[in-house]
Amino acid sequence: MIEKQQLRQSVHQKILGLGDRADRDRAIIHTLTGLEVWREANTVAVTLALDLEIDTLPLIRSAWKAGKSVFVPKVTKQGLTFHEIHSFEDLEPGVMGILEPTTSATTRAIDVCIVPGRVFERSGYRIGWGGGYYDRFLASYEGVTVSLAYDVQLLDEVPIEPHDIPVEFIVTERETILCSQSSL
After folding, report:
1. pLDDT digit string (tens) for the chain, length 184 residues
2. Which residues are CB-contacts of 65 (< 8 A; sequence separation ≥ 6)?
3. Burial of 27 per CB tally in 10 Å (0-12, 13-18, 19+)
4. Parallel, antiparallel, or unpaired: how do β-strands 126-127 and 119-121 relate?
5. Are 55 and 123 in contact (CB under 8 A)?
């Protein structure tokens, strides 16, 4: 099995080769917002995209328009905390230049969590950026998990470690993959 860093780099190069990312992003967001699990959610957690990830700002706008409460993660020494934002003015640059919330952390239940990743397999396992923040958070999370990805980020197999937790759905520009029956 190829090392995780090599897989991240390989997928990075494939994403760089995509010429119509804005159209792909719109298709992914459109598909996600049409899913029953998203439509029925009252509270959603959305990570703000890093370079070469699906742009999640339109998803946040759509969630607000639908009356959903939107939570954005913040990286702390203890792990991830989630903070409700009411506008993009509630954000400032944080770790790795990612926009992070300036609001207080919440303990409210989150119905749907958009889980970032770099490389995915159809069973829902993913390779993130290497910090393990989401796997630690997901160990006690009880809501629905969805990852957004380009088709080029899907591989037949990724290295899996004992602490890895798969997501339930992966939405790409061409398909929605049901990885787990637990939320149905």
Report:
1. 458 888 888 889 999 899 899 999 999 999 999 999 999 999 999 999 887 899 999 999 999 999 999 999 998 888 899 999 999 999 998 766 778 899 999 989 999 999 999 999 999 999 887 778 898 999 999 999 999 999 999 998 888 888 889 999 999 999 999 996 554 4
2. none
3. middle
4. antiparallel
5. no
| Spatial distance between the Cα atoms of 179 and 164, rounded to a whole number of angstroms | 14
Which pair of structure tokens corresponds to residue 134?
Answer: 């989401």
Alpha-carbon Rg of the chain, whole angstroms? 15
Contact criterion met (CB below 8 Å) for 87 and 103: no
The DSSP line for 5-20 is: HHHHHHHHHHHHT-S-
Residue type, 62: S
For residue 126, what are the β-bridge partners? 120
Burial class (CB in 10 A: 0-12, 13-18, 19+), 106: middle
Q: Given the structure tokens 């992914």, which residue do they identify?
A: 28
Residue whose pair of structure tokens reads 């020494």 in the numeric block: 77
Q: Is 176 helix (H, G, I), strand (E, B) or coil?
A: strand
Beta strands 91-93 and 99-101: pairing type?
Answer: antiparallel
